[in-house]
Design goal:
This protein is α/β, with parallel strands linked by helices. The protein has two domains: about 230 residues, Rossmann fold; about 160 residues, Glycogen Phosphorylase B (Rossmann fold, 3-Layer(aba) Sandwich). Helices cover about 45% and strands about 10% of the residues. It has a seven-stranded parallel beta sheet, with helices on both faces. α8 packs across α12 and α12 crosses α13. It is globular, with a radius of gyration of 21 Å.
Length: about 400
């Protein structure tokens, strides 16, 4: 049985599928992961077949307003669609589709008859429980939240319009809009498994049958992997430090953010680790260390706190480690996850990225490192997450589908 997982976006949109793919591979399935070229090493290091998708995140320039963001996203998915059918044609018996690739994969399924299953990292279906994850955190009431959720999906369908038209022509399918295809999938109760923890976002009470929350999919980790020697030495040299990093966000802002981070750490009297990321954070000193990418699973349990951009994966990793966090959301679904972190009591109120100062960050760090309520709340969530087996739940579903 050949399973192709298709995902697209930043590192945080791809890495969880390496762990999911590895679980399926260990169960005897032939697993490939179709992603953009930048993530080929992640895929191969997990022992999975790499299949290339052509789009390059960020290749369409720096968008500033909503309309420009939609144009940029449309350009990205149009490129993505051009190579999607080619990736599937390399041999596929079952498709696992992320929220980004599903609006393309549905059409390939129609043309080829290959069955597909949703494997999403975010809750996208409308619900009265909360507003759409990409529209901020202010609730509009149950009816308003559902209405806003449907509006958000219509906006997403507009982004996919050209990509869908091009893909259907290539597949010799009759014209069909992205919105019409989405309605068709919803009416058929197309199954979607969501790879986040019910301890962080419980399954919405009004979701239809077939939409399930199964637990987080963690990036693949080689059992032999260890932290770099200089990082180990730093961790052992004094009290638990704070990690500050913004992942794939804030490109080009490294100098300003590094200055803010170091001043905040010293104002709060804390040792710190700066994770360079796309922003390029860097600083030197006896009380601060700069690192590149390291496995969250190995590092986070040894920290006093984490300052991060509130991506879904980083938020989950800090909670899994039982470590409190200061969220500094930048864009997209990050304010949603930041608000969840605060609602759980595992972090103070988020600091919007545009409002970040050394003074505000130092104050927040003082709270999370000195008030044990935050660490206790994070530990409580960690205990609940430890009972979940997200990848195992997907495996059981795949076995039912293919048995």
């Amino acid at each position: 049985m050949r399973i192709m997982i298709a995902a697209a976006g930043s590192r945080g949109d791809v890495a969880p599928y390496t762990g999911l793919g590895a679980e399926l591979s260990q169960a005897g399935y032939d697993v490939s992961l179709a992603v953009t070229e930048a993530f080929a090493p992640l895929v191969r290091n997990a022992g999975l077949e790499f299949r290339s998708l052509p789009a390059r995140p960020g290749a369409h320039g720096g968008a500033t307003d909503r309309r420009e963001l939609m144009r940029t996203a449309a350009g990205f998915v149009t490129e993505l669609g051009q190579g999607f059918a080619d990736a599937v044609a390399q041999g596929t018996d079952l498709l696992l589709l992320s929220a980004t690739t599903a609006p393309l994969g549905w059409h390939v399924t129609e043309a080829t008859g290959i069955p597909a299953l949703g494997a999403y990292l975010q809750p996208t279906a409308p619900t009265g429980d909360f507003p759409p994850v990409v529209m901020g955190t202010r609730s509009f009431g149950r009816l308003g939240n559902r209405t806003a959720g449907r509006f958000a999906l219509r906006m997403a369908d507009r982004v996919y319009g050209q990509a869908v038209a091009d893909l259907r022509r290539r597949l010799d399918l009759p014209a069909l809009t992205a919105s019409a295809m989405r309605r068709r999938q919803e009416q058929s109760d197309w199954p979607v498994l969501h790879g986040f923890s019910a301890a962080i976002v419980p399954r919405p009470s009004d979701w239809p049958t077939g939409l399930d929350v199964v637990g987080t999919w963690w990036p693949h980790l080689d059992p032999a992997e260890q932290l770099p020697t200089d990082l180990e030495d730093f961790l052992r040299a004094g009290p638990r430090p704070v990690l500050i990093g913004f992942g794939s966000m804030a490109g080009g802002g490294g100098e300003r953010l590094s200055d803010i981070a170091v001043r905040a750490l010293r104002r709060a009297g804390l040792r710190g680790i700066l994770q360079s990321g796309t922003a390029g954070l860097a600083a030197d000193g006896d009380d601060v260390l700069t690192i590149g990418d390291v496995p969250h699973q190995l590092l986070f349990p040894r920290l006093a706190a984490v300052v991060h951009h509130a991506g879904a994966g980083t938020t989950a990793a800090a909670l899994r480690a039982g470590v409190p966090a200061v969220a500094v959301p930048v864009t997209a679904d990050q304010p949603f996850w930041a608000a969840r972190l605060a609602a759980l009591g595992a972090g103070p109120a988020p600091i919007p990225f545009v409002s970040l100062t050394a003074e505000r960050l130092a104050e927040a760090l003082g709270h999370v490192t000195k008030r044990q309520t935050y660490a206790r709340a994070a530990a409580t969530v960690a205990q609940r997450m430890a009972t979940e087996d997200g990848a195992g739940q997907v495996l059981k579903t795949v076995q039912r589908l293919t048995g």
